[in-house]
Structure formats: structure tokens, C-alpha cells
Design a protein that fits this description.
Elements: H1 2-23, H2 30-55, H3 62-101, H4 115-168, E1 173-180, E2 192-196, H5 206-220, E3 224-228, H6 236-243, E4 255-258, H7 271-279, E5 282-284, E6 288-294, E7 297-303, H8 318-322, E8 331-334, H9 341-346, E9 351-354, H10 365-369, E10 378-382, E11 385-389, E12 407-414
Parallel strand pairs: 1-12, 2-3, 3-4, 4-5, 7-8, 8-9, 9-11
Antiparallel strand pairs: 2-12, 6-7, 10-11
Helix pairs in contact: 1-2, 1-3, 2-3, 3-4
Length: about 425
């Protein structure tokens, strides 16, 4: 169903762009045909990119395909926003054209032309004058408006995508957040978590993406590193080399990982990645918990599988992860999707660390994400549980982030 909706949306978007950027900016002829074939070619590149994702070929087509996806999205959004002002300007130009063509006063009788020849000459002059007015006032105005709208949309879309690429491919922002937990033992006050989610290792990121994230996390000198799902977009065979820098992660009590929905997209499921991460020194919390002992006090750190694993019998099990614990100890839960907080609240969790949303990644998608998840980004309280949602350090699909820069979070607990 998702694939069908996505394909229908892409086809409709391309038809809309053809209507606004080709049909309404050109007349019949060679230029219109060339632009039509060019737009069809971009659609083919986009299809090839998504097909290549399943075939391991996307490394050589992913850049143009995904960039066009972002440009296409913003062209549609900007043109849609311009529809109302465009309609207003078109109505004004039509009204101005009618005023220009309307006679200002009744013509005086003219007696200089005589006979049939004079009448024919007068009629031809009048027809030429009206025809010229229609050509200059009607068609040219529509053409000018279509081209002006296309130019504004094109420049705006390209500028937005260019800015978004510099944000997505640049250094993540370090967000420093302090969270007060009422039940937290005072000896645990000051315990620091380096939280990172949605790294999305893939062919567009390269090993430099992982190395940069590891370097920035190590610079925080955290007590615990929490990787909250969607680490990869592919198999160990494809992307194992990109994960190698994770072996250099530094923290006092270790690095921990929980699955995201993308870990279940691989044909072999998350099992191979769990093993690979174990060899790199990153422990996966698979519906389980560990105790973090700090200055003589204990914090429960739990992790549950993503809801995406439910369909393959590998979903979240809160009872297994949180059952039988000391209710007097504070609990921090790693759960990829914020929506899992409802179940966390029923098990007495104090703080949930999540990702998944990317903060919307490209505005105005943040408004859509808010319809599906209780928190889009940042710290909030849901059903009595504090939830921190990271915008993620990577990107999915287009290497573009607008209004949601990548982040790594230094989260500090306080009593």
C-alpha cells in the first residue's frame, strides 16, 4: 500500500510539474518536446534509484536520483503555495487586458473612404488592430506569468535543496540537554549519555560519515553511548566496512544499541548486524536491560526492539525488558520510535530515548510526522514519561535536511 501511494504521488507530482513548468511556459514545438523528454528522463532516474536500492546498484545513480527527489518535492510545494497569488495576478492581467481593448469613445464618422474598397480596407485595419491586441495582451501575458512563476519556483527549490545538502552533509549539531528525574538517586546526578540515532550508513554517506560521528561522540567524554536505531540501510556485506569506526567509540560504561525499523528491511533481518556490532564492542539490548553502576548507585538501562520487528516475530517485549526490576531504581529506556512511550508508561519508565522522526528532515514534513508520532524532536512529557527524541545524525533518501539539522545529544541526568 505504501509503495502504491508513493508511486502514485510521484507520477502526479511529475504531471503537475509538466503542466506548470513545461506546458505553461512554452508553445507547441521543439522546446516543449525537449523539456517533456527531460522531465521523463528525471522520472526514469528516480525509478532507477529506488529499484537500485533493492539490487545494490544505487551507488552510481543514488546522487542524481535522490537530489531530484528533493528538488521535485520543493518544486511541488513552492508551486502549490504560489497557486493563489498566481491566480490573483492572472485575474488582474486579464482585467487589464480587457480595459486596453475596450474603446474609449465612439468613433467619429469618417467620410474619406468611399466605396467597397474603402470599407474592406477599414475592416482589415480594425481586424489587425484587435488581433495584435489579443496576441500581446492575452497569450503573452499568460506566457510571461507562467515563466515568472516557474523561475521563482525553480530558484527557490534549488536554493532550498542546496542549503539542505550543506546541512545534511555537514557536522551534526551538539545538543546539550539536562533532564531532571524525580526518582533519580542523587549519586547518579550528572550521569551523561551521548545519544545518537538514525545514522543511516549507506552508499551516500561513506566511511567519513561514521568517523566524524565517532570523533564527535568521543569528544563529549560521555558515561554511556546510546545508539537508538536505524544505524544502517543495507546488509553487513554491503555496509560492514562503513561501521568499522564504531569500534573506536569511547565511554565509561559502554555503547548500547537498539534496533530501528530500517534494521528489519535487510533480507536477513537485524541478526547479522547485532553480531557485527558485538564484535565492534557495541552491545545490543534486545528486549533486555543492564545495570549502570555509578558512584555506588544503580540505574536500569533497558532497550526494546522496534515495532517494525513485530511482523517477523521480533517486536518489542516490555515485560521481558522491564519486568522484575527494583521499582525504586530509575529506568532509562532505549526505544527507536517515540510512539512506544505509551507502553513504557505502563511499565514505570522514567525517561525514554528515541529517534526515528529525523525532526521531519525536510520541512514541512515535520507537520506530517506529528500526525504519527507523539513527539517530533526534543524533550517532552507523554503519559507521565519524559521522552527525548533525537533528530538523528544522518539522513534517509535525499541527502537534504531543511529545518531539522543533524544532531548528537549530550544528555545529562539530574535528581
Amino acid at each position: 500500500m505504501f509503495v502504491l501511494i508513493f508511486v502514485a504521488g510521484v507520477l502526479l507530482a511529475h504531471f503537475y510539474l509538466w503542466h506548470r513548468l513545461v506546458r505553461q511556459t512554452t508553445g507547441p514545438g521543439r522546446l516543449r518536446k525537449s523539456l517533456t523528454w527531460g522531465l521523463a528522463g528525471l522520472l526514469a532516474v528516480l525509478v532507477t534509484t529506488f529499484a537500485g536500492t533493492r539490487m545494490g546498484l544505487e551507488s552510481w545513480v543514488a546522487w542524481p536520483g535522490y537530489i531530484w527527489l528533493a528538488v521535485m518535492f520543493y518544486l511541488v510545494v513552492i508551486l502549490a503555495v504560489l497557486e493563489i497569488p498566481r491566480a490573483v495576478v492572472a485575474a488582474f492581467l486579464r482585467r487589464a487586458g480587457r480595459r486596453e481593448r475596450a474603446p474609449e469613445a465612439a468613433p467619429e464618422p469618417v467620410a474619406v473612404l468611399a466605396g467597397t474598397a474603402g470599407l474592406e480596407e477599414a475592416a482589415s485595419v480594425e481586424a489587425a488592430f484587435v488581433g495584435a491586441g489579443a496576441a500581446s495582451g492575452g497569450m503573452s501575458r499568460r506566457l510571461f506569468l507562467g515563466r515568472a512563476t516557474a523561475a521563482v519556483a525553480g530558484v527557490s527549490a534549488l536554493g532550498t535543496v542546496g542549503y539542505g545538502m550543506s546541512s545534511a552533509l555537514g557536522d551534526p549539531v551538539i545538543e546539550r540537554v539536562k533532564v531532571a528525574l524525580p526518582k533519580l538517586d542523587s549519586r547518579l546526578s550528572g550521569l551523561r549519555f551521548a545519544v545518537v540515532s538514525d545514522i543511516h550508513l549507506g552508499p551516500l554517506t561513506g566511511i567519513g560519515h561514521t568517523e566524524r560521528i565517532v570523533r564527535m561522540i568521543n569528544g563529549l567524554e560521555a558515561d554511556v553511548v546510546a545508539i537508538v536505531g536505524d544505524l544502517v540501510d543495507g546488509s553487513v556485506a554491503q555496509l560492514g566496512a562503513l561501521a568499522k569506526p564504531l569500534k573506536s567509540l569511547e565511554s565509561r560504561y559502554g555503547a548500547f544499541f537498539v534496533t530501528g525499523n530500517h534494521e528489519y528491511f535487510a533480507p536477513e533481518g537485524p541478526g547479522e548486524w547485532v553480531e557485527e556490532l558485538g564484535e565492534l564492542g557495541v552491545r545490543s539490548l534486545r528486549n533486555e536491560r543492564v545495570e549502570i553502576r555509578h558512584q555506588g548507585a544503580v540505574l536500569d538501562l533497558a532497550g526494546v526492539n522496534d515495532v517494525g520487528g513485530t511482523s517477523v516475530g521480533d517486536g518489542p517485549d516490555f515485560t521481558k525488558a522491564l519486568g522484575g526490576r527494583d521499582a525504586g531504581q530509575s529506568t532509562v529506556l532505549l526505544a527507536h520510535q517515540p510512539i512506544q512511550v505509551s507502553e513504557a508508561a505502563r511499565h514505570g519508565v522514567d525517561l525514554q530515548l528515541s529517534g526515528h522522526t529525523h525532526g521531519g528532515q525536510i520541512a514541512p514534513f515535520n507537520l506530517v510526522v506529528g500526525l504519527q508520532q507523539p513527539v517530533v524532536s526534543g524533550l517532552a512529557t507523554i503519559d507521565g514519561v519524559q521522552v527525548y527524541v533525537s533528530r538523528g545524525a544522518g539522513f534517509w533518501g535525499p541527502p537534504v535536511r531543511v529545518g531539522a539539522p543533524p544532531e548528537i545529544t549530550m544528555l545529562e541526568l539530574h535528581s
